[in-house]
Amino acid sequence: MIPAIRGTHDILPGDVERWQRVEAVSRDLFGRYGYAEVRTPIIEREELFAKGTGETTDIVQKEMYAFTDKGGERITLRPEATPSLVRAFVEHSLEQSMAVPKIYLFGPMFRYERPQKGRYRQFHQLDVEVFGVSDPAIDAEVLDLAWALVTGLGIADVELVVNSVGCQACRPAFGEALVKALGEDVGTLCGDCRRRATTNPLRIFDCKVPQDQPIIDRLPHSVDYLCESCRTHFAAVKKHLGVYGIPYRVSHRLVRGLDYYTRTTFEILAGSIGAQNAILGGGRYDGLVKHLGGPDRVGIGFAAGIERLVLAMPASAGARPRTAFFVAAMGEPARDAAIALLRDLRRAGLEAHMEYEGRSLKSQMKRADRLKTAYALILGEDELARAVVTVKDMRAGEQAQVGRDAILEYCRARAAGGQE
Ligand code: HAM
């Protein structure tokens, strides 16, 4: 046996229904909010992420699956979707072909992280991005979409956390204020934080090392260092969140681990899934499109980890009502009639099963039960002679006989009833 690679996983029947539910609920919502689907390659040039996600991020420094291909090109398995979607937006001039460039993507992402519950090396994201809208109303709309998605999946015990990390104009002064406030203490922080103090002081707020926390707790907050326009923007985002009626908490520690964020950042945390509790994260990235060689367009979006959504969803989510039919045949002549009935049921749009191994009626009924079918349709010599089908309600155990010419209508009505 050659096992799957550590940090990757198969999604099997029994679980896949929950994945399908995430996709169905998301697609429905994304359509209603005006987003169109985009599918981009899983491999990209390494520099797209080095430049896009950012050289000082853990993702680029430690976690990328990067290699040289046979043509000598540096290739990366995408660790996140945002730089790819920005690339596609620029490369195909989507602002020309779309009234409002709002796009979404589902797909696998790759990060060489230490695997644990809710953290994998191949994981899946659903990602949405909007380009070219700077009005803070769009920030709130994107947050409303994120909230609608999470609550629409029935995930309870969730918290929306927001912050503003400022812009190119006000962030440097905040970085300096952080370094100044740290003073001599910087030497007592963990190695990562000492490095962050010189490369990207804001990222110190990401630190989870317990000994560092008392020092970090005393540091100034980004919202107190925002320039006038960032301050006005953040106030408007919060006002609009009030209009949407979405509960949120402002956390000055929410700086996010990617380099491109400006102004609004956010995460949705789920209480029920353990340490890796961020089910969704995102924010505004007003300089990224230009930085990656495109026109000067703002952007905002988020990504949710599908594994984490599935973990946080209630157990019943994705379970289908019992509406399927099982066709059972007793004896060879009845078998052909049963196959014809199976064909008719499927052509009528119903889910139907049959077993071909010619077992006893009892073993066929066992199979019907394991398949969780709602009704068994039994055909034997007697039924053939009288042109009827014996219908067994698998839950109630009751039996009835229905004419062969009325059976499709009968089954359709039963299936529709089961879906209510
Ligand atoms: P991110 O916070 O790196 O943001 O990832 C978004 C979500 O992906 C996380 O909240 C988490 O649910 C999931 N995730 C991340 N890493 C893993 C992992 N190793 N295993 C399982 N799930 C994981 C981004 O990726 C940004 N591109 C989001 C964004 C879009 N910002 C603006 N637009």
Question: Which key phrases capture this entry?
Answer:
420 residues; alpha+beta; 8-stranded mixed beta sheet; 5-stranded mixed beta sheet; 16 helices; 21% strand; elongated
How would you characterize this protein structure?
The protein is built from 16 helices and 16 strands. It is of the alpha+beta class and 420 residues long. It has an eight-stranded mixed sheet, with helices on both faces. A five-stranded mixed sheet has the order 13-12-14-15-16, with helices on both faces. Helix 1 (16-32) runs antiparallel to helix 6 and helix 6 runs parallel beside helix 10 (228-244). The longest helix is centred in the N-terminal third of the chain and has 17 residues, at 16-32. The chain is elongated, with a radius of gyration of 28 Å. Histidyl-adenosine monophosphate (HAM) binds at residues 80-82, 111, 113, 118-120, 123, 125, 127, 129, 258, 278-283, 301-305, 307-308.
Strand percent estimate: 15-25%
Mean model confidence by pLDDT = 95
Quickly give the structural class. Answer: alpha+beta
Cα(first) to Cα(last) distance is 45 Å
User: How would you sum up the major sheet?
Assistant: 8 strands, mixed
Map the helices and strands.
Blueprint: H1 16-32, E1 36-37, E2 43-45, H2 46-52, H3 58-63, E3 65-68, E4 74-77, H4 82-91, H5 94-97, E5 102-110, E6 122-131, H6 136-152, E7 158-164, H7 171-182, H8 191-199, H9 213-217, H10 228-244, E8 249-250, E9 262-270, E10 278-284, H11 288-291, E11 299-305, H12 306-312, E12 325-329, H13 332-347, E13 352-354, H14 361-370, E14 375-379, H15 381-386, E15 388-393, E16 399-403, H16 407-419
Parallel strand pairs: 1-5, 7-8, 12-13, 12-14
Antiparallel strand pairs: 2-4, 3-4, 5-6, 6-11, 7-9, 9-10, 10-11, 14-15, 15-16
The chain binds histidyl-adenosine monophosphate (HAM).
